[in-house]
Amino acid sequence: MTITCSDGTDQITSSYKVDISDAVPVLTNFAGTSGPLGDLSPVGTSVHQFTVTDQDDAISCSINAQESAKFGINKLDTATGAQRFDGMTIATLDYDSATSYTITVTCTDAINPVTSSRTINLADDKPVFSGLPATLSPARNDGFQTATLLCTFSVTDANDQSISTCLIQAPMDSFFNLVPGTAPTFLRSWVKASVTLYAASSLSS
Ligand SMILES: [Ca+2]
Ligand SMILES: [Ca+2]
Ligand SMILES: [Ca+2]
């Protein structure tokens, strides 16, 4: 700017410069740890919400290259000032492949980037039974048995390779056994041949 002063006769001028630097956005609540997050959580599950503040610029955020295949950022506000973001999953997860991810977010007002990191811990979700009734119906006759299929059931877990360890606990394993079915996750419960069942007490396998 140029400043002019005068004593009524003589006029003098001088100029000086005021540098204006852009205020850096402030990312306050991203660092830390989230989870454990079940590895069967659906795509789009929110992991962490955070806020970036810039008084006059709209902020955009991105996640570092490798982890951006699994996690994304959705902007909840479009305004300037305190702007909220939601970090979420954008792909399926599997505890057997990775037990945690450390994601680094970069947020910028298009001039000054700021970064912060957060660790997302995963947990393996349990498999689930289906088709296994609480009580076999109709009841089996007691006495000497021939090998007989009792029921077919399945144990499924969307991202585990196979359910390899189903067993009937002792002492009922002397009366009953499990046989894998056609698919790796399908199992059949049988009463064993040549065993004798007694009606005095119901057996549970
Ligand atoms: Ca700014
Ligand atoms: Ca898993
Ligand atoms: Ca699992």
TrEMBL record:
Coiled-coil residue spans: none
CDD domains, A to Z: Cadherin_repeat
Gene3D superfamilies: Cadherins
GO CC term (a single one): plasma membrane
Bilayer disposition of the protein: Single-pass membrane protein
Keyword Calcium: yes
Entry keyword annotation includes DNA damage: no
InterPro entries noted in UniProt: Cadherin-like_dom, Cadherin-like_sf, Protocadherin/Cadherin-CA
GO biological process, one term: homophilic cell adhesion via plasma membrane adhesion molecules
Domain of life (superkingdom): Eukaryota
Subcellular location: Membrane
Example of a GO MF term: calcium ion binding
Keywords assigned: Calcium, Glycoprotein, Membrane, Transmembrane, Transmembrane helix
Domain Cadherin: 41-186
Protein name in UniProt: Cadherin domain-containing protein
Record organism: Dreissena polymorpha (Zebra mussel)
